[in-house]
Amino acid sequence: MNKMVKTLVVSGGNIEKKCFDEVYSNNKFDYVIASDKGLEILDKYNIIPNYIIGDFDSISKKILNKYIYNKDIIVKELKPEKDYTDTHMAIKLAIELKSTNITTLGATGSRIDHVLSNVHILKEALDKEIECKIIDNKNEIQLINKTTITEKKQKYKYISLIPLTTKVEGVTLKGFKYPLFDSTLEIGHSIGVSNEQIEKKGVIDLKKGILILIKSKD
Question: Which of 114, 150, 173, 215 has its CA 20 to 30 A from that of 66?
Fold first, then answer.
């Protein structure tokens, strides 16, 4: 049996202390990766990362200098002219570290282009069968391409399923307020938004395609 390796990636978006503390205290992370400005969040909450990665174009130089010479921290400086975002490179690094579970904080915020990109980045982990989630103050986001069991959580009222691929075929939902049976979800339709889990365990089954699974609260 392979050892579980849990990695926390922190980007420079929005994350409240209550959410950060809940995620950090409920998980024993093997690695903590600061993605560029995410180092400012870790500094604010007094967490020392194992890795710092980015082109460092948006981070405070004062905070960067506080950590960059620490011999216990591995710093990976990227060129500004690159094909991937800092968060994408952080996810790639987490995969290289043989992570079996990746949690990303600070991956959402006011930049919608970055938010959408970060959701798409999750596919890199999905393709390697690594569980990877984005968590913020009101949402938990992941991609699924096979049968998934969801535990009912009081803090999340809604569960939405949005197609990432053009079509997602054979979608069956059990344990939800609005069940589906062998349905096809397509881009451009909103049928999967704002469902609610009514049983302790919910089953999301699908035969082909990729769904964005979003648990959320108002």
Answer: 114
